[in-house]
Each structure stands twice: as C-alpha cells, then as structure tokens.
Amino acid sequence: xxxxxxxxxxxxxxxxxxxxxxxxxxxxxxxxxxxxxxxxxxxxxxxxxxxxxxxxxxxxxxxxxxxxxxxxxxxxxxxxxxxxxxxxxxxxxxxxxxxxxxxxxxxxxxxxxxxxxxxxxxxxxxxxxxxxxxxxxxxxxxxxxxxxxxxxxxxxxxxxxxxxxxxxxxxxxxxxxxxxxxxxxxxxxxxxxxxxxxxxxxxxxxxxxxxxxxxxxxxxxxx
Amino acid sequence: xxxxxxxxxxxxxxxxxxxxxxxxxxxxxxxxxxxxxxxxxxxxxxxxxxxxxxxxxxxxxxxxxxxxxxxxxxxxxxxxxxxxxxxxxxxxxxxxxxxxxxxxxxxxxxxxxxxxxxxxxxxxxxxxxxxxxxxxxxxxxxxxxxxxxxxxxxxxxxxxxxxxxxxxxxxxxxxxxxxxxxxxxxxxxxxxxxxxxxxxxxxxxxxxxxxxxxxxxxxxxxxxxxxxxxxxxxxxxxxxxxxxxxxxxxxxxxxxxxxxxxxxxxxxxxxxxxxxxxxxxxxxxxxxxxxxxxxxxxxxxxxxxxxxxxxxxxxxxxxxxxxxxxxxxxxxxxxxxxxxxxxxxxxxxxxxxxxxxxxxxxxxxxxxxxxxxxxxxxxxxxxxxxxxxxxxxxxxxxxxxxxxxxxxxxxxxxxxxxxxxxxxxxxxxxxxxxxxxxxxxxxxxxxxxxxxxxxxxxxxxxxxxxxxxxxxxxxxxxxxxxxxxxxxxxxxxxxxxxxxxxxxxxxxxxxxxxxxxxxxxxxxxxxxxxxxxxxxxxxxxxxxxxxxxxxxxxxxxxxxxxxxxxxxxxxxxxxxxxxxxxxxxxxxxxxxxxxxxxxxxxxxxxxxxxxxxxxxxxxxxxxxxxxxxxxxxxxxxxxxxxxxxxxxxxxxxxxxxxxxxxxxxxxxxxxxxxxxxxxxxxxxxxxxxxxxxxxxxxxxxxxxxxxxxxxxxxxxxxxxxxxxxxxxxxxxxxxxxxxxxxxxxxxxxxxxxxxxxxxxxxxxxxxxxxxxxxxxxxxxxxxxxxxxxxxxxxxxxxxxxxxxxxxxxxxxxxxxxxxxxxxxxxxxxxxxxxxxxx
Lengths: 223, 838
Ligand SMILES: Nc1ncnc2c1ncn2[C@@H]1O[C@H](COP(=O)(O)OP(=O)(O)OP(=O)(O)O)[C@@H](O)[C@H]1O
Ligand SMILES: [Mg+2]
Fold this sequence. Notes:
The complex is a heterodimer of chains A (223) and B (838).
Chain A: E1 6-16, E2 21-32, E3 37-41, H1 48-55, E4 63-68, E5 71-72, H2 78-88, E6 89-92, H3 104-114, H4 120-130, H5 146-159, E7 164-168, H6 176-193, E8 196-200, H7 204-208, E9 212-217, E10 220-222
Parallel strand pairs in A: 3-8, 3-9, 6-7, 7-8
Antiparallel strand pairs in A: 1-2, 1-4, 4-5, 9-10
Chain B: H1 2-14, H2 19-50, E1 58-62, H3 68-76, E2 80-93, E3 96-105, E4 115-118, E5 127-129, E6 137-141, H4 142-148, E7 155-158, E8 161-171, E9 185-189, H5 193-196, E10 206-212, H6 215-227, E11 236-239, H7 241-294, H8 299-336, H9 350-371, H10 394-413, H11 416-448, H12 453-464, H13 466-499, E12 508-513, H14 515-527, E13 531-532, E14 536-546, E15 549-550, H15 553-558, H16 560-563, E16 566-570, E17 579-583, E18 594-598, H17 599-605, E19 612-617, E20 620-631, E21 643-645, E22 656-662, H18 670-675, H19 680-687, E23 692-695, H20 696-735, H21 737-749, H22 754-791, H23 800-821, H24 823-827, H25 830-837
Helix pairs in contact in B: 1-8, 2-7, 2-8, 2-9, 2-20, 7-9, 7-10, 7-20, 8-9, 8-20, 9-10, 10-11, 11-12, 11-13, 11-22, 12-22, 13-20, 13-22, 13-23, 20-23, 21-25, 22-23
The complex binds adenosine-5'-triphosphate (ATP) and magnesium ion (MG).
Residues 48-49 of chain A line the site of magnesium ion (MG).
C-alpha cells in the first residue's frame, strides 16, 4: 500500500471571538490515500469547510500536523504553502468563483497561465470540450446557467491536473437534476485523471458515490 | 509572466473596470501637459528674445534726454554707443493716419544683433542690417502699408518730417517682449528727430543710450554707475541683459506657477475620481486575487503583478495624456497668438517630465493606496466569503493623496509656501462649498416630504448617500464656480464698465499739443462740433523727497503710481469729479509753490497736508507744499492727475497740453461711427502733425481683446478641469453602483415601473446638478462682487445670467451624464441584476 497523500494528525482549530474562544475543530486525524475519493459530511456549522481549508493549506490549524504528499505544511509559512498548493492542489467551490470579466475559455486557462503553462489555451479548450461546453468558449459567466458555470469550474480545476482536488459543496447551489449532472461529470473526470478527491457535501447521494465518508459533528470526527 | 500580467490588464480593461481610473489619469496628465507645454514654449520664446533684448551689452534709460556725463563716461571707457528715442506719434500718408510706435535710432544702432529687412512687400528677400536707416528714410512694419495704403518708395509724414519708406521691417533685435506694441513700428534716423519737432518738454519719450564693449569695459561702466549717488539721479536707470532677464524670469515663473496651479485643481479632482474608481476596481479584484492565491500564487507575485499593471496603466495613460495635452496647448497658443508677439521655439523636456511625473505620482498617490491591501488577502477567502482584505485606513489614504498633491503643487510652483497656501486655499474653498452644500441638502430633504413619490425617492437618495453627494457637489461646484467667474469677466465686466460710463464720456484723447497750438485747435474742434473737457498743461517729472527725507524704495514700492515719471499739471479750478478730502482747494494764490495730491498715493507714500515734497522736473529740483488731498474718479475717462500744482509752478518747463474730446454724434448708426474716423481727427493731425490723437474705442477694444483672450485660455483649462469633475461624478456613481442596481431591481420586482426608477434617478441627478450650479453661481457672484469693487472700481451688480447658466448647465450636464452612466441600472431586467449580484 502506497504512503497516504494526505495525513492529518490531531488537528484542532480554535478562533478567538470578542469575549471567548470558540473551538471549531478538535482532535481530528485522517489519512487519505492517493486516488481515493473522500466525502466529508455533517450538519451545517459542523466545521466541514474549516477542515477542508486546513487540509488544502489555505488556513493554519491551532494544533496538530498536516502532511500533503511529503510536505509538512503546518511547518511552512504562507509562501511555502502557496508553493505546495501550486504543485498539488485544485479547487471547486459552491459559488463557482468564475471571474466575471473573463470568458469561459479564459477562466479555464487562467490558473495554467499563472503557472507559465505555454499550452494553456489549448488545454483549456480541450477540457471545456470534455465538460460539453465546446460551443460556449467565448461566453462570459453571466451568460451561462449555474450548471454550466460549475462545469466551467470543473474544467478549470481538472485542466491543471492537480494531484488533489478539494470540492466544497460543488452542487450546493444547483437544483437536484443539474447537480446530478455536474456530479456525474465530476466523478467521470476524477476517474479519468486518477485525482484524489476531497468533497464536502450535504447530499447523501453525492457522498455515497465516494470511496469513503467522514462524518463530522461539532468539530469532532464521528465513526 | 509579463505577458500574463498584460493579458490580465487587458481583460480588466475589457471588463470596463479600468476605464474610469484611466480616463481620470489621462485627463489629469492632459491638463498638466497642455498648461506646462504652453508655459514652456512662451517662456522659451521670450527668453530667446531677451538675449538680444537690448540690442547692446548695456543701456542707460531715461524719460529725459540722457545726461552728458553718461556719454562722457562711455567715451572715456572707449565704449561704442548708439541712441534710441521711442514714443508714440501720428504718422500719415494722404488722407490716412495711424498712431504709430516710432523708434528713432542713430546710425550705430543696433550694437548687437541685426535688423531684418526686406525691400519687397512679401518679405521674400531678407536683408540683415546692423545700421539704422539713413536720414530721410523710414523702415516700417508690414501692417502700416495697409493702414496707410502705401507702397515701398512712398512718403509718409512723421511730425513735421517727411520720410521715404524704403524697407519693410521683418524683425528688430529689441522689438520688446510680451504684449505686442499697440501701434505699427516706424524706424527712422536720429538725424530727422529735430526736423520732426516731436520732442517737446512734456512729451512722453523714452531715451536709451546703448553701449557695447568688452566685458571689463562694461563692468567698469557698471561700477562707475553704481558709485554715482542714486539719490541724486531719479531720472536714469541702467539696464543690463541680466537684470532685464531676471525681471522677466520672475514674471514668467509666476505666470507658469499660476497656470500649473490651476492645473492642480484638475489633478486634485482627477485624483479623487481615481481613488474612488480604484477602490471599486480593488473590490472587483478581490476575488481574483483570492483565487490566484489559493492556486498558489505568492503575495510577492501578486504585488509584482500589481506593480506591472499599474506601471503599464501609468505609461499608457501618460502617453495619451501628453498627446491630448499637445492638442490642448496648440489651442491655447492659438488664443494667445494675437497677444504675444514672439516666435515659439520647440518645447524643452521639462513639460514632458512634468507630465510624466504627474502620471506617476497620481498612480502612486491615488490608485495604489486603494489597491495596496490586495496582495495580503487571505487565500481562505475562496471558502469563507466574509473574509475581507483590510483596506488601507481612510486617514492614511487621505494623507498619501494630499502628500502627492503637495508634491505636485510644489513641483509646479517651485515654492513650498505657495504650494501649501494654494492647497489650503483650495481645501478651504472646497470646505465652504461642502458646508453650503450640506445646508442646501438639508433643505432639499425637507422639500422631498411633500412632493410626489418619484421626486421624494430621488431627493431621499441624495440625502441618504450624502457623503458621495457631497464629494460630487464639492468637486463640481468649485470648478463650475471658477468657470462662471471667468465667463463673467469675459462677458459682463467690460460691458458693465462701459454701461456705467456717463453719456458725455469722451471719445478721444488729444495730447502732445504745444502751447501756441492750443487756441487754433480749440477753434478747429468747435468748428467740427466736438466738445472738450478742461485743457491741462502737462509736464513729466519725479518726486524726490518728503520734508527733506529722500523717498525710500519701500515707499515707492507701496506708491506704485509715483514710482516712475509722473504727469504733473497745474490748474486753479478743481477738475470735474475730483473731491477734496483734506486741506483746501486754493481760493487765492498761495505765497509759496503748492500742490494737491490724489488720496490713495498720499496714503501710500505717507504724506499729509502741510508737508513739503521735493520734485524734479527735467533735472531741476524744487520744493512744494501739500495744500490738499483729493479723490479722483478714474473711470470718468477725463484726463486725471495724481499731482496738480497751483498755476505758475510749471510755466518755466514749457508744458504741452492734453484734453479729452467728445466728437459730434453723427446720425449714423453706432456700427458705422465705429468704423469711420471722427471728422476732426484728419484735420487736426494734418495741420498739427505733432499732436497725438488717441481713440478711446481702440483702447477699449484692445483691453477687451486682451481680457477675452486671457479668459478664453482660462476657460479652456477650466473646461478640462470640469471634465475631471465629471470623472468624480462617474466614480461616485460607481461606488454606489451595486447598491443601486440591487435597490432598483427590488423596486422593480415590487412593481415600480421602469419609468419611475428612471424618474427617481433623473430627479436625483437633476437635484445634484441644480445644487452644484446654485453653489457655483453664489460663489461666482461673491468673487465677481469683489472683482468689480476692488479691481474695476465699479458699483457691484447682480449677474442673474450667470446663476441661470450655472444652474442650467449643472443640471443638464449632471443629469445627462449621470443617467448615461446609470443606463444599466435602468435597463437591465430586474431578474438579471438580482442574479448578477447573488
Ligand atoms: N474565523 C472564524 N471566526 C469565527 N467563527 C468561525 C471562523 N471560522 C469558522 N467559524 C465558525 O465555525 C463553525 C464551522 O464553520 P464551517 O464553515 O467550517 O462549517 P461548515 O460545516 O462548513 O458549515 P456549512 O455546511 O454551513 O458550510 C461555524 O459556526 C462558523 O461560523
Ligand atoms: Mg461550509
């Protein structure tokens, strides 16, 4: 069995509010194998997004260690974590987060352009084809439906060929039919690329399609 | 990377997020470029002339024939010399006459430089001469050929001298700088001066003794001059190219500073617009930056990308601004052409440097602070939308912006104090505008209560977003105010001044009349139906001391009117419209020499009734006792004098006479009488060739021309500044844009019609414009009140047209532009705008 691509050891996160400190995550330890797909489920406010952010290196835990591939990102500063994210990580968000002033094609190409990828546009076109939007390359996000926007976001995420893809409620803003189509596409692309997928979701249907599920409640991992 | 940055920039531009930042920057650079290019080229033109300004290395000048000792010293030092006498005189040919600027030169003229001449009227073949015209010859400026209807080879009369016109003057080394001479130039020989009989004791003639030699000789002469007791000699002054240049440089520096500071207002407004627009740009960029950081782009890379983008923005905008500024300055030059009699060399580097620096500092001072926080945005924002970047504190941003302005103002004016004072004055003006605006807004808010719902909605918006409203009001009203002041000066002031002239205002001045000519001319005038005011004898001289104490330069600096040669007269009747305020007008002949002095100069120089003042006329000094102090009504257009002696005092100086004439009113229309010369003029000048007739219409027309060109130039600059004000309007609308989009979408979903949304917006903008126009009108009226009172000595008048102009133009401009800028808010279907903002 290969070494896990993500290892989190006794993670905790507390935030200070005006008068007291609030514990959002406590003593969370996980190991995730490369190529695995994992769903994080739990009630609203349970700390799912917080955990996702920590694992992706977007935020720092108050306690515990996180290893992404061989990097101990808890020991790194923001610049170091940025390098690791650039190397390993991709994202899909509930609110799509497409840039308004960019066309679908430019949105998909942007992260590759930032990494200095010379064939960014060609790859972007290819991936937009894969998500069925070959005809909508020059459309702006405003001109696309929610499902279409999320498909653009999927193309953007997969075109970079990340080792790990973090998805925070990717279907949360979509109706169930559209959501179903988007999640079909997500798993299909994931299958093709062998990416490790960490998915936060409310929907049991979506969670069921993952290899494994983690239930989180009030900041604690449930078994 | 650079390519990616450029791509990103291009996409931002395409998305319309940059247009306002860039337009504001372009405008700021345009204003500054236009103004500084204009100033630079005029300055260079004047400086190029001044190097040969004197037509010699050194000159002694005087209002009298230059004293022998100055010649003797020059001779002793072996300096080359030449003489000039210049004055205004009638010249005539056939039935035509013209009040010319005559320059009489000795054969040695010019000692430096050359006179450029041509023997044919087209000026095709240029001859360079370094000697003056021969006796019996005259060289004249091109326009005199038309004015007198003559050709080369024809004869003209100058005083009693008949001269043959042999050459056309293309250029003189010392033709003077700045405002073009009123009359056409006639250059004639020193040998013909006496024959012309133009030199009389009271004539206004300027004599120059030109000198040339090697540096040590010149220095020796200067040393000798300095060793002379200056107090002993009120009549002569020494002019070197350096001190002539210094004076000019000072004046130019001031002029350039003034123009550039008016540009500063534009920069300030543009800066305000840039800051607001950049803030909006930054909020648009926030998501982009958060995403980039989540993808692993480091803060440093984000900062670098920001710098690259801003640098490109600065470069491109500055380049465009310089191009537009170039166009603007040619326009200004066109307006100034009739005023400035100079050739314009190509500009130097400085204006471009000024423009470039303006661009850079604007970006650093106004755009960058609003964007500064972006690289620090937490990447976690991609998951938690509530995380905001912490914008640089408002206080800090103001501080940076004001510092940037101060730097620019300092650089423009080259004086820290001027820069500070100017900015303080500007902020006070803005502050006052803001205070008035706030009061008016309060009133308007109350007004909204009893109006229809559309009006109420619109006006309520003004109050609700009062911070933005105030910013827009202040920027707009201050600029509009200055524009109204300038327009008011151009359109109303001269007309008002003319309207306040009494009906019997003279039409002509007649001067340089010799004593024996007075009676025959009186007879001739009454024959022609012309009436005159009192005839005054006139001599020129200087004031020397008060009660034995020499008048200090400081006193002269205060009493501007007494500094140079002054016109003295004598009279035993108090002239019309003069009033005694202290002492007594003579009831009988006084026992000593006595005089009466004008009130203002008396106060300025510090003299009271009973004091004794020493005068110097033609080198002869005498004392006189101050018997009375008078007010003088300068706008009466009668001959007015600071100093009036009791008759007898001036008899021995052989005065010449002056009077104001009112020509007989012809039945002809005013237009016609403007074109036609009054019937007495040709007769008087023909028979008495040394008399000078000055047509007041010409003088007024000339003043009007100068004022209208200067104010038009200022209007051009201020219109550019107003465009900067429009940028502020746009930027402020931009700030509340999303909010408005949402509100109006909700209003429409709730069933308001599109018409109502449009109506409310129109009411809001119209209200904004009307208030701005009102404040502008008010401010302009206050400023004009003081201008009328202090500068023009007029009874202040209301200018309802200006108020109307302010309010109407403010309302129209802001409503049209505001609605245009808000077109999306109105036209986008409510559903789409709600979704867009989700
Ligand atoms: N920086 C912070 N400061 C204060 N409270 C925070 C902070 N970060 C998270 N929280 C709180 O911690 C809790 C967990 O937040 P988190 O976003 O992880 O929940 P979630 O499980 O993703 O919920 P949802 O399903 O609604 O997205 C919430 O109550 C949230 O308000
Ligand atoms: Mg969440």
